[in-house]
Design brief:
By secondary structure, the chain is an alpha/beta fold. It has 13 helices and five strands. Strand 1 (about 135-140), helix 9 and strand 2 (about 160-165) form a beta-alpha-beta unit. Helix 9 (about 145-155) runs parallel beside helix 12. The longest helix has 22 residues, at about 95-115. It is globular. The protein starts with 6 loop residues before the first helix and ends with a helix.
Length: about 280
């Protein structure tokens, strides 16, 4: 039955047969489904008075691998399939319409993220990076290119910076961090198991940690000394980031620029050196 039933039907089918905690979570999900697809597992745990582990356990009872898949299944019940591609698209949209919708979503994400950005929080992040002996940047999936870009940008400024996008290497590298290490973790959901685990390991090892993630409570935020939030409409429907990537890039560009400006003379010298080296690679 479960192979073809909707996720809400599965919840109703299991109903009173669930243990008390699982039943409480299931009831909340069924009654607030439209809200749940916008929430993190941490936020649902708070609302239901349950642990994150209990939520994952219910997800598996329902045939989902975890909370993120549960949200995807809920979205299939609640939204038009076309919105899995992009929130604002309709089947009749022209090429011009698609461009308008996508650019508008990116612009809105940038504007909302800028409004949210705290100067105090940003200054703390800059301080952590500048005080570090080495910087590790974690990201997996759609966050991996953002992590690689930040690592490269910091390297150009003379920082000992390393993007780490393999989950096994992240875990080992994080466990070997120390008080001279700054870790920057990029995760739109803030709930990616591999990067949350690596960030937790790094923090326990003594590293200072910075998270770049969506607005709201999340597993990642618990292990970060500083959190730089992004806002994007896509949280509701997709497992991978789209417009939030633009906001993440704006955040890392701002972070890098602030680090460079804090020691402008040294930064300019490093950037000039990078430019000379790269010039030899161009015709």
């Amino acid at each position: 039955m479960f192979a073809t039933a909707s996720i809400l039907m599965r919840i109703r089918h299991l109903g009173d047969g669930l243990p008390p905690t699982a039943r409480r979570i299931a009831t909340y999900v069924a009654e607030h489904a439209d809200e749940v697809i916008r929430m993190s597992i941490t936020e649902v745990a708070e609302q239901t008075g349950a642990s994150e582990g209990s939520i994952v356990g219910l997800c598996r009872r329902l045939g989902a691998s975890g909370f993120q898949e549960l949200k995807i299944l809920l979205s299939r019940d609640l939204v038009e399939p076309m919105q899995m591609i992009h929130e604002d698209l309709r089947p009749s949209d022209t090429v011009a319409d698609v461009a308008q919708h996508v650019f508008a979503a990116h612009i809105a994400s940038l504007q909302e993220t800028q409004k949210l950005l705290s100067q105090k929080t940003l200054a703390r992040a800059v301080e952590i990076v500048r005080a570090s002996k080495r910087v590790e940047v974690y990201g997996i999936g759609s966050a991996a290119p953002i992590a690689q870009d930040l690592g490269y940008r910091l390297l150009q400024l003379g920082y000992d910076a390393k993007p780490v996008t393999d989950s096994h290497i992240q875990a080992v590298s994080a466990a070997m961090a120390d008080s001279g290490t700054a870790v920057v973790t990029v995760s739109h959901s803030g709930s990616t198991q591999e990067t949350v685990m690596a960030t937790e390991l790094a923090k326990k090892a003594g590293a200072r940690t910075i998270g770049i993630t969506r607005m709201g409570k999340s597993p990642l935020a618990r292990h970060c000394d500083v959190v730089l939030h992004t806002i994007a409409n896509e949280t509701r429907y997709r497992p991978e980031a789209m417009s939030s990537r633009v906001a993440q890039l704006a955040i890392i560009d701002t972070l890098v620029s602030c680090c460079a400006l804090a020691d402008a003379k040294r930064s300019i010298a490093r950037l000039q050196l990078s430019a000379r080296v790269l010039a030899a690679k161009r015709f």
